[in-house]
Amino acid sequence: MNIAKKIMLGYGALLVVIFVHLTYSFSSLDQMDQINEAITKVNNPIIEVADRLADNLISQDLYAHRLAILKDRKSFELLQLKIKGFAPLVDEIGAINSPFAAVKELAEKVAAFRSVLDTSYGSMASALALSPKEKNSIEKEVEEVIHLSRQVSFEVRHDQSLKAGLSTTIGRQAYRVLLVYGVGSFFVTLGITSLFAIYISRAVGRLKLSTRQIAEGKFNEVRYLNNRDEFGEVSRSIAEMAKKIEHLEKLYLATNPLTMLPGGLAIDDTIDTRLEAGRSTAVCVIDIDNFKGFNDRYGYAKGNEVIQATAAIITSAVKENGAADDFIGHVGGDDFIVVTEPERYEEICKTVVKRFDEQIPLLYDSEDRQRGSIVGKNRQGTEVVYPLMTISIAVVTDRAGSIKKPHILSRRAAELKEYAKSLSGSVYVVDKRQFSPEEDV
Q1: Around Cβ 128, how many Cβ atoms within 10 Å?
Q2: Angle, CA 379 vertex, CA 375 and CA 380 arms, to 5°
Q3: Of 161, 183, 205, which residue sits at a domain end?
Q4: Sign, Cα dihedral of 284, 290, 292, 294
Q5: Which of 170, 241, 359, 415 is at 20 to 30 A from 387, Cα to Cα?
Q6: Same domain, yes or no, for 174 and 289?
Q7: Does residue 239 lie in a domain region?
Q8: Within 10 Å of residue 321's Cβ, how many Cβ atoms?
Q9: Residue 43 sits in which domain range?
Q10: For the chain, how big is the Rg over CA atoms in Å?
Q11: What is the pLDDT of residues 200-210, one digit of tens each?
Q12: Based on the domain organization, do 323 and 174 belong to the same domain?
């Protein structure tokens, strides 16, 4: 029996406990959800409409008394406004599917009272023509409906309170049960873990040496076990991991600390890998023009800002327009490199040139920026005028995948970069020459 089967057998009991745990949890949550849904969809609407009915009737009674005293159009209109607001409340209470008998009684009562209102206060003339006996009868019905509304609101609120209490009780009971299950699961897990710890301790002890060697950087000394089981596989994986960590460490050491972009070793590895695979490749060599003049004028700290800003511009341009496996490197100083696909270099270069010309001039003082140049002195003390920085990009492509040696691309890029730097402004130039075997001589 292999380790996987032993683990499955050992944890089978734990899975059963967890399944029961989850089943009970979901059952309790479902009960609480049903109770809360009943409160939300039944109790709350009933309480709301009952309270609104009572408030509406109190207002009606107030305006009816005012009309009886003042006998004016304004009082009648206010009373009519409340009566119109009473009609939808009657429809609303009648539409509620409620298990409460008092709600059904209230619905029947307000429906009957609605017709009384329509008859008695259908017009101002009919309202003023009401006899004292009729007014007393209407007032009595108003009081009955208000009382019944208050009674419904109280009864439903009480039921709501009971439901909330039941929900709380279920929650507390579920908490206690789940706590017991949780403690039980903990001890089951502890027991299973202890058994496996005893079983694998020897093998783990043998693997410790390999991990210690990796931690100490002794990657070449890591050896894997010859066991034909999972521990042997883990040991072989550790040995392979040691090789990869060694490689990554070398790449990290080659990373430029200013821009955190990979440097020489990673650049060479990337180009070598693409060329050996026969992939179509475009190498963009990027250089900042007139950087020395800026650095001499503003100091190394501002010069570092330019380098970092340029790195950010290149990185964002490649992220937006490049492929997922495109490479960005910092050769050193103010030189960068991008390795991409021939179909993508054009948009990358355009974006870099545009953003460089937009952002980098902002690092100059306003006076130098408006003048378009800075005035400095060379080592001989002679005054020299340096234009604002621009960027030059030399692009060398191998669409056919026929170039296999990086030095050919490097030579072409160096030649093209000098040509690009001889042009004014920020530019990118592309080498469109076809590869010939004579170049490899």
Answers
A1: 11
A2: 95
A3: 183
A4: negative
A5: 415
A6: no
A7: no
A8: 18
A9: 3-183
A10: 43
A11: 777 676 667 66
A12: no
Q: What is the pTM assigned to this prediction?
A: 0.48
Residue 314's CB is within 10 A of a number of other CB atoms, namely 27
Q: What is the pLDDT of residues 278-308, one digit of tens each?
A: 888 899 999 999 998 999 889 999 999 999 9
Give CA–CA dist 419/428, Å, rounded: 10
Q: Which two tokens stand for residue 60?
A: 């009606």
Q: Compute how many other C-beta atoms are within 10 angstroms of the C-beta atom of residue 30.
A: 11
Does 272 reside within a domain? yes
- CA–CA–CA angle 39, 41, 43 (5° rounding): 45
Q: What count of other Cβ atoms lies within 10 Å of the Cβ of residue 192?
A: 17
Does residue 234 form part of some domain? Answer: no
Kindly tell me the burial class for residue 228, based on how many C-beta atoms sit within 10 Å of its own C-beta (0-12, 13-18, 19 or more). exposed
Per the structure, how many domains does the chain have? 2
DSSP label at residue 336: E
Strand, helix or coil for residue 263: coil
Alpha carbon 9 to its chain's center: 39
264-276 helix and 406-422 helix, angle to the nearest 10 degrees? 120
* pLDDT tens by residue, 227-273: 666 666 676 677 677 667 666 666 666 678 899 898 878 888 888 88
Residue 16 lies in a domain: yes
Residues 172, 290, single domain; the answer is no
Is 156 buried (19+), middle (13-18) or exposed (0-12) by CB count in 10 A?
buried
Do 234 and 210 contact (CB within 8 A), yes or no? no
Largest CA distance in the chain: 124
Torsion of CA 288, 289, 290, 291, to 10 degrees: 10
Q: Please tell me the distance from the alpha carbon of residue 438 to that of residue 411, in angstroms, as a whole number.
A: 14
Instruction: Kindly state the tokens that stand for 186.
Output: 């903990």
Question: What's the CA gap between 227 and 236, in Å, rounded?
Answer: 10
Answer yes or no: are the C-beta atoms of 261 and 337 closer than 8 Å.
Answer: no
